[in-house]
Amino acid sequence: MRLKWDALGFDPATLQAMADEFGRIHEDVQTGRKTRWRIYLGRRDGRVLYLSGLPTRLSATPPRFASRHAAEAVLEMMRSAIRSGENTPDEVIDAYLPSEYSKELIETHVERYVTRWRALVESSKRSPNSLLDIERWTKPGGLWGWWNGRDIRLLTNGDVEQWHAWLAVRPRKKRKGTIRGKTQANASGGFKAFLNWAATSGSSGTGQAWAVPIFPVIDKDSEVTATISPERVLAIIEAVPWDRRGIFLAQAGESVRFSAAASMQMSDVDPKTLELHWYKARKGRAIDSPVGVQKNKARVRREPWLPELRKWLEWRIETADPEAILAGRETALFWNPYAANARREWGYDAYRNVWDAACEKMGEDIAPQAGTRHSILSKLAEILPEATLQNQSMHRDRRSLAHYTVGARPDPVAMVRAIRPKTKAEK
To answer: For the domain 230-413, what is the CATH superfamily, name and number?
Structure first.
């Protein structure tokens, strides 16, 4: 029998190599769902092609591979057809994917969406932090992975309800319990935005090319974030080595995010008054991420009120190397003296590792923002008027303060001190 590829000069060794490179097994492991195996067959016309099971005439949807061995056996049959020289890879794909090829798979559109988002970040039209969320949701085992293998045009309201139920029982990584309502809501809102983009970009005119299902609202506002007492906050921070303690004191005392504290330079503090100028933030967790305005767009100059922070700032200014700073080295105000970069700025992973080590030492289990900024603001909410609390937190509107006032209880002692005159003995 004449080989179809003889005219192209393909010898048996070449066909063998091409067959060996054809396809690979994907093993999808997700908590709470059965492991499934699929054969990745590359891309065609911009689509990612997967074979989830061996097609039959009895069902339009082939039964899924029962084991990895079953998937490997089918892949070997496909490779044998190529190795024989009687079938091209495209012919093999058409034979095994008569219906799958016509599907608009979720993962194909997700890949385009991530590529588009990266381009927007590179052109400074989107924040790198938003891309981090999308990449986290779409990576293997991510929260969007539940949808893989589905036709994006045929999703139902019931599918969304099932996904939300699945999200509600997802375990947290490295911590006890399930993922927070805010995490669920963010993943759901992001996926809805993705579906709207895909349906709109797939339209040949106005409107959407297919219907997007309804996404019920996930309640996140009533959730009380874990907090600890101010005494425990300071105890954890004191477990951090002194020279690296500044960034955690800044978050606790100045109510700022990591992104704002990590971008502060020596030029942002008045060495005489210790007044700090808060106006910028890092737009991403990487040290080389761009720096822009704060999330709340606030520009605030104020002296720190926390005594421990003032003491650390005095030490930092007094012991700083002027020559190194003039040379552009060691310029980070809340520095990590062991960082590999010249400015000695914190990277998020190093910052998180130091915090987690201090928590473990003190027998606590809490995230750094919850254990610093949130815990202190929640305590201040018991004694500060709303306007003063907003000034301290630097939120743009007072609605955002609800996150910190949930569960806050008035402090009767502080209230009495605020209204009664001091006695001569107290003066």
So the answer is: Intergrase catalytic core (1.10.443.10)
